[in-house]
Specification:
single chain, 113 residues, alpha+beta, Ubiquitin-like (UB roll), 3-stranded antiparallel β-sheet, 3 helices, 20% helix
Length: 113
C-alpha cells in the first residue's frame, strides 16, 4: 500500500506500521505513546474524527472538524493531567507523542460571562 509505505519512510526501521486506526484518547489515558498506524482517531469538541497524517497542523485539525474558516477559531490540545495548550494554525501537532488526548476549539469572538 502506498500510504503505509509513505508512513514507514518517515520513521525508517523504528517499527512496523499498524494497519489499524489508533484511538489517541485511549493511549493517552494509559500513558502510552501511540504506534505508527494507518490512521488516528481523535476527538474535536467531543466528536470523533480519523486523520491519516500523524503530524497535522492546527489548521488541518480545525478543517477536519468542519470549523471553518480556521482563522476564526482558537484550538487547544488536551493532555491528561495538564491544562489545555494553545495550538497555532500553522503549528504542527505530533499525534505520536505521548499524551495527546483530544482537541477543543472555540470561536475567537467568544467572550466570558
Amino acid at each position: 500500500m502506498k500510504e503505509s509505505a509513505e508512513l514507514e519512510s518517515r520513521d525508517p526501521g523504528e517499527e512496523i506500521v499498524l494497519d489499524d486506526i489508533i484511538d489517541l484518547e485511549e493511549f493517552a489515558k494509559r500513558g502510552e505513546r501511540p504506534p505508527l498506524a494507518k490512521g488516528y482517531r481523535m476527538r474535536i469538541n467531543g466528536e470523533s474524527y480519523v486523520i491519516h497524517d500523524p503530524k497535522p497542523t492546527g489548521r488541518e485539525v480545525l478543517t477536519l472538524g468542519g470549523l471553518l474558516p480556521a482563522e476564526e477559531y482558537t484550538l487547544r490540545v488536551k493532555r491528561p493531567g495538564e491544562k489545555p495548550e494553545k495550538v497555532g494554525l500553522d503549528e504542527v501537532v505530533d499525534l505520536r507523542k505521548r499524551g495527546v488526548e483530544k482537541f477543543k476549539a472555540l470561536p475567537r469572538d467568544q467572550t466570558e460571562g
